[in-house]
Structure formats: C-alpha cells, structure tokens
Design goal:
Number of helices: 2
Strand order of the largest sheet: 2-1-3
Structural class: alpha+beta
Oligomer: single chain
Strand content: 15-25%
Helix content: 25-40%
Protein name: SPOR domain-containing protein
Largest sheet: 3 strands, antiparallel
Region (Disordered): 46-65
Biased composition (Basic and acidic residues): 48-65
Length: 65
C-alpha cells in the first residue's frame, strides 16, 4: 500500500526537513500543511498543541473546564 500523497507540504521526521508532494511515507512525516513556512514550524506547532492539551487535562482533573 502506498501511503504517500503527491500534494501539500510536509515535515519529514526521518530527515528533519520540509518536503513538498511525494516524499517519505506519510507515517514518517507530519502534515500536510498549506505552505512551506507552516511545514517548517511543524515541531513547534505540535509542541504548542501538546502544551495546550496538557493544560486542558490539568483543568479537567481539577474539576474546571
């Protein structure tokens, strides 16, 4: 099964670089993103989202929303 998409911008976790279109298998990259600049920030975007989710989990554990 070929899981590589031929469109969009991706951040390859294997090579630590941005890819456009077909590249490494999707399971080895993050995306797709709308543009190269956003794909280049993929790790930062993921870290920010993880922090937000951790904060939400803490609020919910404390009985807040």
């Amino acid at each position: 099964m070929n899981d590589v998409q031929d469109d969009g911008w991706w951040y390859c976790l294997t090579h630590n670089r941005v890819e456009h279109g077909a590249g490494c298998p999707n399971r080895e990259r993050m995306g797709p993103y709308p543009d190269e600049a956003t794909a280049a920030r993929a790790l930062s975007i993921a870290a920010d989202r993880n922090e937000e989710w951790d904060a939400q989990d803490e609020r919910e554990a404390d009985g807040g929303s």
